[in-house]
Amino acid sequence: MSRGTQVEVQVRMDLVTVWQGNRTLAVLQRSVLAAWLWQARPPSPLGIDDIVLSYEGPACLSITIDGRRPCHIKHKQLLRLAHLVGNPRVPAHAGRRPLCSPTQA
Questions:
Q1: Residue 103: what pLDDT?
Q2: What pLDDT score was predicted for residue 3?
Q3: Strand locations in the chain, DSSP E?
Q4: Strand partners, 72
Q5: Are 6 and 100 in contact (CB under 8 A)?
Q6: Fewer CB under 10 Å: which end of the chain, C or N?
Q7: Could you tell me the sign of the dihedral formed by the alpha carbons of 74, 50, 30, 93, in that order?
Q8: CA distance 83 to 66
Q9: Strands 71-73 and 7-11
Q10: Whether the predicted pLDDT of 61 surpasses 60
Q11: Could you give the CA distance from residue 94 to residue 83 in angstroms, rounded to a whole number?
Q12: Please, are residues 81 and 72 in contact by the beta-carbon 8 Å criterion?
């Protein structure tokens, strides 16, 4: 899996940026993403900029980029993302964290 194909997330104080290599796929309000991730039932898909986030099951989140084959975020990574984004006590992280690769089934 090369860095150019991997989807990564960068969490800032108020924003979450989704990257693939040097390409910015989406910039989301941290509070909006947190509310969407923490809903009690699977919410409707969330489309922003070049991505669509959707739940494929109770613990499977997928990211579709430009309407192509989605990559799936593993349960452990989904929990980490929800914790990073949804917990105000978790400081913003300047670096990028890997989420998934579009080549994953």
A1: 58
A2: 41
A3: 7-11, 15-20, 23-29, 46-48, 51-57, 60-65, 71-73, 97-100
A4: 62
A5: yes
A6: C
A7: positive
A8: 27
A9: unpaired
A10: yes
A11: 16
A12: no
Q: In 11-39, which positions are buried (b, 16+ CB within 10 angstroms) versus exposed (e)? A: beeeebbbbbeeeebbebebeebbebbee
DSSP class of 51: E
The single residue listed with the structure tokens 């989140």 is 61
Q: Is 41 helix (H, G, I), strand (E, B) or coil?
A: coil
Beta pairing, strands 15-20 & 71-73: unpaired
List all residues 6 or more positions away from 32 whose beta carbon is below 8 Å from its beta carbon.
none
Partners of 30 in the β-ladder = none
**pTM (predicted TM-score):** 0.81
pLDDT value, residue 94: 62
Q: List 73's β-bridge partners, or say none.
A: 61
